[in-house]
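[job 0417] fold request received: Succinate dehydrogenase subunit D
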Amino acid sequence: MSVTVESPNYAYPARSRSRRGPNLEKAGWIFMRASGVVLIVLIFGHLAYNLIWTPGGIHAIDFGFVGGKLAQPFWQWWDVLMLWLAILHGSNGMRTIVNDYVHKPKVRTLALGAIGTAAVLLILLGTLITFTFNPCPEAADPALLPSFCASL
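[job 0417] inference complete; emitting structure tokens
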């Protein structure tokens, strides 16, 4: 007795051998693995510095701590790299979910466009904020500034 199993209805059929050009799905799969490993290092480094190596631990983290940390280029780039990888990793995961479960082409295009737009917007705004953050702006009312700004 033989049983015939019908081919499932995938949104995107398997890549044929005659197809030319880059295999973007394979690149996305490799990116997810590589970015996941790098994110683990970045996140645990971030947590270790903030919670273990900083005297006072979690109780020392306040506006002044964040302002001082973001004044150093090393931590700016660390946080920006963590932000970029986290957003790209998450949006690639969402893209995969949409491709797997959304079968109507127009809805899929709309969802993928929304994911891409949100990722670009978050990366741009997060990068801008990280590199332009100034806890002690010159033109601000001194009564509104944190106490450590008066000593500058």
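[job 0417] notes: The helical segments are 24-53, 63-69, 73-101, 105-132. Residues 5 and 13 are 16 Å apart (CA to CA).
[job 0417] exit 0
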